[in-house]
Amino acid sequence: MIVLGVESSCDETGIALYDTQHGLLSHALHSQVAMHEQYGGVVPELASRDHIRRAIPLLEQVLAGAHIDRHQIDAIAYTQGPGLAGALLVGASVACGLGLALDRPVLGVHHLEGHLLSPLLASEPPTFPFVALLVSGGHTQLMRVDGVGQYALLGETLDDAAGEAFDKSAKLLGLGYPGGPAISRLAEFGDPSVYQLPRPMLHSKDLNFSFSGLKTAVLTLVKKQTTNLCEQDKANIARAFVDALVDVLLAKCLTAMKQTGLKRLVIAGGVGANSQLRNALNAAAQKRRFQVYYPELEFCTDNGAMIAFAGAMRLQLKPEAAQRDYAFNVRPRWPLNELGI
Ligand code: ATP
Ligand code: MG
Ligand code: FE
């Protein structure tokens, strides 16, 4: 079965073809980062309009890349939520329009399920069950995953997401948008002994997180400087921020592994691309003898491949979940726990 995946929940248009027999056939992505950069964040209306411009050319590109004709597509999966309503509507209408034209079933996919299953696209994928840390721009959650659709929430952030903390702190340091990769690169040159930032909820015993205080601590540090921040100061602050955030993520992952007794930890979402986090997790996994898995770097942030893949898994599990009426509705807010099998 060949499934076309359409992702348009935020500022990336992602299109991909996944074949349940041969794996990922091709994928293409257009990031709108350059367009939103000057505004310091995503402008929803601009995002929707750009998805409209990009979707069909990207579709042509993946069909050509996979050397298939559009009539060979067996089903279409699109991101139904959560995300920006207008942006989601573009992907949904493209998917349903194609489904209608090609007479193929269409399935709405949960964006976070896409992220969560993205490590399974890697060359050495984890097997179920596993603990998953989902660290993206809008979410920070620890989950126990027993299979497709079997997700038990173990803990989550009470305020900002990890990616959001990266982006907001980067903005305070004048690093542009999105700030995650920039702050991470800068932190490499930072001296860890200059500043110490708080590790929120490190000892809270539960598996919840809180990152808004960390961002405020960065703000306080920046405000304290009497002169303009020099590059080394910025690097030192970036380092203090990354060290604090990674410490908390690592500690909570270790607690989750202990609590569940599981031996596989899976990281998903944009912050999963972070090298400091990966280094810390790899070292801990080796010491404590568990396995840690990541998505391919290009599939950490939003992409169409994870949506095609999640759609294919769902369709295999429950073919009747697909719709044939092509009446689409998106779900900008959609808690993952409302998603059954
Ligand atoms: P959600 O999936 O929760 O709706 P999103 O789709 O915006 O949110 P992702 O695309 O998974 O989130 O990830 C984007 C986030 O990842 C941004 O906050 C970005 O700064 C962060 N990020 C990307 N690369 C890195 C990196 N190397 N280090 C730290 N953060 C990073
Ligand atoms: Mg994005
Ligand atoms: Fe995402």
TrEMBL record:
Q: Name one GO cellular component term.
A: cytoplasm
In the Enzyme Commission scheme, what number(s) does this protein have?
A: 2.3.1.234
Q: Which UniProt keywords apply?
A: Acyltransferase, Cytoplasm, Iron, Metal-binding, Transferase, tRNA processing
Task: List the catalysed reactions.
Answer: L-threonylcarbamoyladenylate + adenosine(37) in tRNA = N(6)-L-threonylcarbamoyladenosine(37) in tRNA + AMP + H(+)
HAMAP family under this entry?
Answer: TsaD (MF_01445)
Cofactor(s) this protein cannot do without = Fe(2+)
Question: Principal place where this protein is found?
Answer: cytoplasm
Which GO BP terms sit in this record?
tRNA threonylcarbamoyladenosine modification
Q: What lineage does the source organism belong to?
A: Bacteria, Pseudomonadati, Pseudomonadota, Betaproteobacteria, Burkholderiales
Which family does the record claim for this protein? Answer: Belongs to the KAE1 / TsaD family.
Localization, UniProt = Cytoplasm
Q: Outline what the protein does.
A: Required for the formation of a threonylcarbamoyl group on adenosine at position 37 (t(6)A37) in tRNAs that read codons beginning with adenine. Is involved in the transfer of the threonylcarbamoyl moiety of threonylcarbamoyl-AMP (TC-AMP) to the N6 group of A37, together with TsaE and TsaB. TsaD likely plays a direct catalytic role in this reaction.
Task: Name residues in a coiled coil.
Answer: none
Q: Which residues bind substrate?
A: L134, V135, S136, G137, G138, D167, G180, N274
First-level EC class: transferase
One Pfam family it belongs to: TsaD
Q: Which Gene3D superfamilies match?
A: 3.30.420.40
Specify the Gcp-like domain's residue ranges: 24-309
Which PANTHER family has this protein been placed in?
Answer: TRNA N6-ADENOSINE THREONYLCARBAMOYLTRANSFERASE, TRNA N6-ADENOSINE THREONYLCARBAMOYLTRANSFERASE, MITOCHONDRIAL
Q: In which residues is Fe cation bound?
A: H111, H115, D302
Q: How is the cofactor bound?
A: Binds 1 Fe(2+) ion per subunit.
A molecular function (GO) held by this record is: tRNA N(6)-L-threonylcarbamoyladenine synthase activity
Task: Give the protein name, as stated in the record.
Answer: tRNA N6-adenosine threonylcarbamoyltransferase
